[in-house]
Amino acid sequence: MAKILLKDVYETRYPFDDHMKKQKVQPHGCMGCIEIIVKDKFGNIVQQYSEPNIIKIFAKEMLAHRLPSSQVWDPEANSGAGDWVNTGIDPNEEFSARYILLGAAFDSNGQPITDDPRYYITDPATGTKVPIKLTPGATNSGSLINAIPLNDAARPLKKIESVAFDATYQPAGIPILQDDVRALNNIVLLETTIKLDEYNGFGLTDSDFFILTEVALAGGRKVGNVGASCECTPRELFLEGLAAGGPFRASAAGSSTVSLDPTTPATEVDVIREGDQIRISNFASSDDTLNQVSPFYLVMQKAVGGLDMVLDRTPVDVSNTPIIGTVGVERDTLRIFSHRILKTPVKKSGDFSIIIRWSLIFN
Question: What is the reported pTM?
Fold first, then answer.
């Protein structure tokens, strides 16, 4: 019997390009690839390529929130006969991949930029253009470098339109020494299509087009059609405030504790929960982020039904001056699973439709 080492059995079958079909996937992360298929107006494929991709470690928390059930078995319930009881954990679908966000190379006038230093730099060794390295500082305009504004039917929020599964092959029985293997459906395929009439520039000239440079796989609250009056970035679209509209009114006292206003409707006090990320801005004008380095904070403590929120740090402006007084608070539901700058930018105009297919391999 041939001996198979554990490191040699993590053979992953990719459904895309030949060079991607067999990869050695080490059991320490969530890997995958992005496939881009460009079709002309007649449906002919004019460009097709794929890039490997890794889901960053912070996404594991989101994936963990999808694993537990909302109920557990209590053997003492139902007069000792046992029954399913609530755990208090809500596997909220906000933690599921639901959207594909898009960024593009364009300037303040909406004109496409074919050589955009925000995305690509010149490699001094090869002299070729290579994608920049993403850092936390890239968080901007919807957690993308240059998100495409969502303000009319031609620039909608792209939702996941198709979900399918594929298999990898893992060792059966005792994994270290067994020759036989078994198929596991641990590859999920998420797909959306950018249609001919979507993302074709800002309508300034007949030759308008976008150069798509970045894509992100995201979760968030369920959003339907984006109206023509939105004029917002993806980040703004996923902020949640009062049911009647607008942010929650709150007071900041120059410490890490921010308190919701006592007039907050009792039915909405717990919209913001412990563990949520919130955005603090000017209550009178949510576009004003009070000159903060980052207006986003993590709620470390908040009692059920309580008004006080203990944040991960004291809200301050860029001069490190504590923010004091009335502020607006909104819950941030946008969660980026993975953010990728395309090695090969893709031109999008009315002549092309583009299929974006994201595969995630859970090993």
Answer: 0.78
